[in-house]
Amino acid sequence: MSLYIVLAAVLVMAVFAIVVSYREDHPKKKKLSWSALTQGDEKGRTMTLAKQSEKKYTYADYLTWPKEGRWELIDGAPYNMTPAPSTRHQNVVVLFSRVLGNKLSGGPCRLFIAPTDVVLSELDVVQPDVFVVCDKKKITEANVQGAPNLILEVLSPATTLKDRREKKALYEKHGVLEYLIIDPMGKTVERHILKNERYNAPEIFGMQDALPLHSLDGIEIHLSAVFESE
After folding, report:
1. What stretches of 56-205 show up as alpha helix (H) in DSSP?
2. Are 166 and 195 in contact (CB under 8 A)?
3. 3-class SS at 19?
4. Could you say which of 2, 73, 74, 160 has the lowest number of CB atoms within 10 Å?
5. Distance CA 148, CA 137 (A)
């Protein structure tokens, strides 16, 4: 009987050693948590731990991240889009979308507002405030694949630098024909038009101006209607 006990003990120890060895060779993959993935400063301008470590994430990674926040990927670096935009920011988005949407009605182009994913590449996924797509082949049930004709971003303290620098370079690289940056505080619109694969020097429009949209056959937006309640 004692021999059986010894053999059983040896077998248990052998199995235990195999399990330990397997776990060491196959560590369990950790799910990215909200706190582990992001690290922002006091003004909400988010710099991620991934960006700091120069690790590049893909759209496949992006789809696995927590649903309680909004994210963008620029050159594989994740940007947490919190805090939420201000009421002034959202008011401008709504008014511009309403005016432009009415002018596009019945035509081939579709207008979208955030949060809608625009997948420019495996490393570049953004959610512009407002954008227009005229090629229906780019529109899928889940997202938009490829560059929109027109993109508009409304500035906020947390996104001003990114909108003017990283996003401008990104939209230029991927061939967005027209990029508008609205300053809701200054009540101005800065327009960049793509020519020979580069954006031209910005044109500035004020509250009393009419803004012709070159990417949309010259549709005009009277900016007094966009800033009317500001």
Report:
1. 59-62, 87-104, 160-164, 166-174
2. no
3. helix
4. 2
5. 11
